[in-house]
Amino acid sequence: MGDNGDPRERMNDDVSLDEPKMKDLILDDLIKIITDMLEISPTDIRPDTMIFEELDLDSLQLYELVVDLEEVYSIRMPDEDLDAVKTVGDVVDLVFKLSTQTEK
Questions:
Q1: Number of domains in the chain
Q2: Would you call 58 a catalytic residue per the annotation?
Q3: Domain presence at residue 46
């Protein structure tokens, strides 16, 4: 899937990364997953892209996205957290928050 290797390996190798760099890596991984799923250009996805309104994800695609992110980052995304997600940036923030909690 990737030119840059397994995202999990990259995250483990780069534990010294600061928050903006880690969020950039998460955004890159998220864009890769979404573009593969929806067959759209990576330039169509920005942090302020609305997940449901602009990307038009259906419930099955959203489930697949969540499962992919949970596997890649070894996290669990609670439904109540997902309910608050509106944009791609919100997903990045949630994954970052959950992945840094599991590292501690």
A1: 1
A2: yes
A3: yes
